[in-house]
Amino acid sequence: MFLGALGTALLIAFHTRIPDATGLGLLLDNAAPWLGLVVPLLLLVALASRSRTSLAVLLVPALTWVLIFGPAIVPLSWTAPAAAAHTLTVSSQNIKAGTGAAAQSARELAANGSDIVALQELDAGSVQRVTDALGAAYPHHFVVGTVGVWSKYPLEGSRSLDLGLGWKRALSTRVATGQGEVSLYVIHAASARPNDHVDRDVMLEQLAAVVRADPHKNVMAVGDFNATSTDRAFAEMSTVLEEPNQDDGLFGFTWPRAPFAMMRLDHVLVRGLDVTSNTNVEAGLSDHLAVRATVNLPGD
């Protein structure tokens, strides 16, 4: 019992230190929040043994989980600043290539009040369908390969980012809101599988370097990062941008959409912006939930 409790606490606290042999590190990192489920299992064992000592030992992994993950699951609604007179709402979704539902996703995200719609896994023909679906309300757009952004506001300095891969799955642009510029990044990181996540790791590392060098005060990055916030490869991103909590608390898992989400692979990250809302929404036919965040514009 003692060893089980101690081992669980150590895994929760130090999962990123476990060597990534045969993909073990990747699996542990992304499953880290679920390690807390070991605690109730150990509780059943402790109750069966009727040992007060065992019950006391359970406090170690339980408190470790609360200390590590507790701050991330506090509802944003408890501390979020009030919405200013001018706000910017950004939505992002991996629409899943082959569903034919890119335009549906775009329309539903626009209907939710998005000023900017960012999509990943765009396939042949979907760019024009999305542009037609959003119409004159979103007159500005920029697309790089399978990643695109549609905006009510002008986009300036738009450029593609290859992030070390030799092909482009990311972009950067500046959103000219009239209340100040917001530097926006949209990314679809390479896939991550046990023993096959080097390309993803390189993309996240280089994106972090690009964002760190960005001179703009107000920065936002959205997309499918193919990594959870507990993934060791995501750590560098966390040093340059912050992820706001969810409006209603908990982890905001986005994938898979059915039967229930188990990981948050899709993120909204910010710097220099006050986030008034951050939540997941259903859109289209994708296996990913969309993410949506509202920020106060810098001019307010």
From TrEMBL:
The keyword Cell division is annotated on this UniProt entry: no
Keyword Plastid among record annotations: no
Database matches in Pfam families: Exo_endo_phos (PF03372)
Top-level taxonomic group: Bacteria
Domain Endonuclease/exonuclease/phosphatase: 105-288
Transmembrane spans: 31-48, 55-78
Protein keywords: Membrane, Transmembrane, Transmembrane helix
InterPro entries given in the database record: Endo/exonu/phosph_ase_sf, Endo/exonuclease/phosphatase
Full protein name: Vancomycin resistance protein VanJ
Biological source species: Paeniglutamicibacter psychrophenolicus
